[in-house]
Amino acid sequence: MLLTSIIGTLQMFDQAYIFSNGSGGPENSTLTVSLMIYRYAFGTQNAMGYAAAMAVILAIVIMVISRLAEKANKEERLY
After folding, report:
1. Which residues contact 49 (CB under 8 A, 6 or more apart)?
2. How far is residue 31's CA from residue 12's CA, in Å, rounded to a whole number?
3. Which one of 31, 50, 64, 68 is separated from 6 by 20 to 30 angstroms, measured CA to CA?
4. Measured between alpha carbons, how far is 34 from 15 in angstroms, rounded to an integer?
5. Residue 21, helix vs strand vs coil
6. What's the pTM?
7. How many Å apart are CA 35 and CA 15, to the nearest integer?
8. How many Å apart are CA 39 and CA 48, to the nearest integer?
9. H-type helices in 11-74, by residue range?
């Protein structure tokens, strides 16, 4: 359950986009990682390469967290 919550938090986009209309809110109070990637890719920054690199790093971070959770929850498998 914790792993699903962490991944969901890292990938949260739609709520922050709707609340702040894509701007990140006052003083970036609703800026999430996914919204920041969107702003770099399609917003005022218009830096598609930087946004793609950030998306790859986000995917790697999620993969590492998943592997750590898998090792922490290691159980015997009878196949």
Report:
1. none
2. 10
3. 50
4. 11
5. coil
6. 0.76
7. 10
8. 10
9. 14-20, 33-42, 48-72
| Cα(1)–Cα(19) distance, integer angstroms | 26
Nearest one of 59, 55, 53 to 35, comparing CA atoms = 55
Rounded Cα gap, residues 76 and 61, in angstroms: 26
Q: What does the angle CA 22 – CA 24 – CA 28 come to, to the nearest 5 degrees? A: 170
CA-only gyration radius of the chain, Å: 16
Q: What b/e readout covers 17-41, taking b as 16+ CB neighbours within 10 angstroms?
A: beebebbbeeeeebebbbbbbbbbb
Q: How far apart are CA 69 and CA 79, in angstroms?
A: 21
For 31-75, what is each residue's pLDDT tens digit? 888 888 888 898 877 789 999 999 999 999 999 988 988 888 876
